[in-house]
Structures are given as structure tokens and as C-alpha cells.
Amino acid sequence: MLVNAAVTDVNLRPVELGLGERRLFLQTSPEYAMKRLLAAGMGDVYQLCKVVRADERSRLHNPEFTMLEWYRVGLAMAGLIQEVAALLDALVTRVGGTARALRQVTYRELFQTSLQIDPLEVPTEDLAKIAATHGLTGHNLTGLGRDELLDFLMGAVIGPTLGQGEWLALTHYPASQAALAQLDPADPRVALRFEIYADGIELANGFQELADANEQRERFMADNAARRAQGLPQMPIDERLLAALEAGLPACSGVALGFDRAMMVAVGAKRIDEVVSFTIEYA
Length: 283
Known about the structure:
With about 280 residues, the chain is α+β, with helices and mostly antiparallel strands. It contains 9 helices and 12 strands.
């Protein structure tokens, strides 16, 4: 669980701790280490493990939770989406639930049908006005960029409505939200990234993986610039991951599935507390 470099993502709060004179972090995901194994030639790989993210506690969040993450060499995003849905069907039917149909929709299409806006084209000031009508106060609006506003609308307005009685795969996120995903060669305004929703809960986040070390470094640096602008601590860049990408990451797709949330859907639980033995209050 101990890693040399935390994620730079501005939306995540890694837990830092010292081990002697070393600065280490608890993993928020096993992604970086698993990609190093892929670059070393391991082939398809999975891990079921504990991860830790600070400042996350709600109906759907506990700071420590279980993640199932896996990578498929030679598989494109579309194939991995099918595999995630098949796994979820296996999980829910194992405990007496019913298999669900898989439906796919792009991020752009979803915003157009749900809020009648084009997330790739709408001016940021218009996004701020729409967010305000959905409860984001003027104080909280200060300094927010378009991705923060889109995240609010997705999390507070659209997301809770998704995946009712189905597995909903939301694909092709804006390029500015690509994280570690490739951009779509057919439309570089969007990324080959997807999320899976069920019963209004985000279950999984997946990428057709970026293998370009230089582009990934630029994204890490942009994340840290955004962190500085928001007054957040800078995160060290994982040079070992970048060296692995430079050496050669095979064409692959990967996904991280929140295992506790999948269990919530499988058994009909309303809170993560119902499927975790000891939440943070009782650790």
C-alpha cells in the first residue's frame, strides 16, 4: 500500500506518512505500480486491494475501501466495458439478483439530453449560471473552472439519475478530464475514458491507457499547477511510472471498480456502511 509518489489529481487527497527519512503515501489506486508491471511484460494483471483517500466520508465514501483493478493487453475500451458489465452481472446474480442490460452513452450526449447544453462548447459563465440554479452557491462558485462546474453538475444533478435497472457506461469524457487515458484519434476534444453507473452510483472508472511518457508528464505538471492555484499541496511526480511508459507500455485498457459499491448494488444497500465491517468511525 506504500508508494513513492501519490496521484496529482486535484480531486483526490492522498494520505502522506513518513517512514524514516522517506516521504511515502498510501495508495489511492494501484494503477501506477500495475502499469510498471505491464511495461515489464507481465501481461494481463489484476489486483483486489485496499486503497485510502483522505477527506472522503459520505453515504458512498469511506476513506479506506476495497478496489478491484485490472488491465487487459490488446483490448480496446469497448471490449473492457463489455467485460465490466459481465463481471457485474456475475456478482449480482451470485447473490440472487438479476442481470442487467448494458447501455452506452457519450458524456456529450448525456449533457445534451439532461441539461440541454453541449459540455464541449458551452461558455464557462453559462455553466456557472446553470450550476447556481442547481444549488451551487455564489461563494462556492468563486474561482471554479469549467471542469469543476461540469463535475458538480455530473455529481449532484445527472449522476444520481443514471443506471436505474441497467449498467450505464458513460464514455468519451472531455479531453481536459482524460487523466491517464488516450485522446480519441477521431475527435481529440474527448478522451477514451469511461465510467460505469448503476442505481445512481458510480461503480468504475476506466481508460484506454495513455502510453506516451511526455504527454503524461505534461498532464502531471498541469495537475500540480491546478493544485497550486487551489492552494493544495504539490504531489511528487512518479518518475518510475514515466520511465516505464518510456520503456514501452503495451496497448491496453484498464479499469478500477469500487468493490464495496458493487456489493451495495448487488445486495440493495443504501449506504457503504452496510457492506464494510468497520468504517472510519470504528477503525
